[in-house]
């Protein structure tokens, strides 16, 4: 089976591609996966096509990875919100303490 070469500017069959070199796997998204999948299907050996179970396994792995990335983003957002709430809570405790000290230092006036 021969594999066509792909460069940073011209892909298989002369299609233009964008290079994500140096960005790592985290920079790949659903669009990149679909491009890889269609390129794989276009260039497979017709006498030995890709096994359907392998194709489904790849799709399931990509779906799981996508869900995990979404979960990671959500957890990151919740962590930032938690940090903000913690900072607000600390400032409110300080304010409460200051107000209590001010009230304690005020002279009490007796009403006649």
Distance between the termini: 104 Å
In N-to-C order, the SSE pattern is HH
Shape: rod-shaped
Number of strands: 0
Q: Fraction of residues in helices?
A: 55-70%
Task: Determine the strand fraction and express it as a percent band.
Answer: under 5%
Mean pLDDT: 78
Work out the radius of gyration: 30 Å
Largest sheet: none
Task: Return the structural class.
Answer: mainly alpha
Unreliable sequence segments: 5-12
Q: With helices defined by DSSP (H or I, 4 residues minimum), what is the helix count? A: 2
Task: Please write out the topology.
Layout (H helix, E strand, L loop, with lengths): L29 H13 L9 H54 L7
Protein described:
The protein has 112 residues and is an all-alpha fold. Helix content is 60%, strand content 0%. The radius of gyration is 30 Å and the shape is rod-shaped. The chain starts with 29 loop residues before the first helix and ends in a 7-residue tail after the last helix.
Features:
about 110 residues, mainly alpha, about 0% strand, rod-shaped, FlgD, bacterial flagellum biogenesis
Brief rundown of the structure:
Keywords: Bacterial flagellum biogenesis. This protein has 112 residues and is an all-alpha fold.
């Amino acid at each position: 089976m021969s594999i066509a070469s792909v460069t940073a500017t011209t892909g298989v069959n002369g299609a233009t591609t964008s290079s994500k070199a140096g960005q790592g796997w985290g920079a790949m998204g659903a669009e990149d996966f679909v491009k890889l999948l269609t390129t794989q299907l276009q260039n497979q050996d017709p006498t030995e096509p890709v096994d359907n179970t392998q194709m489904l396994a790849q799709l399931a792995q990509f779906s799981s990875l996508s869900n995990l990335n979404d979960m990671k983003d959500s957890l990151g957002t919740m962590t930032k919100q938690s940090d903000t709430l913690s900072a607000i809570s600390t400032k409110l405790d300080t304010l409460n303490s200051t107000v209590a000290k001010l009230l304690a230092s005020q002279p009490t006036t007796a009403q006649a």
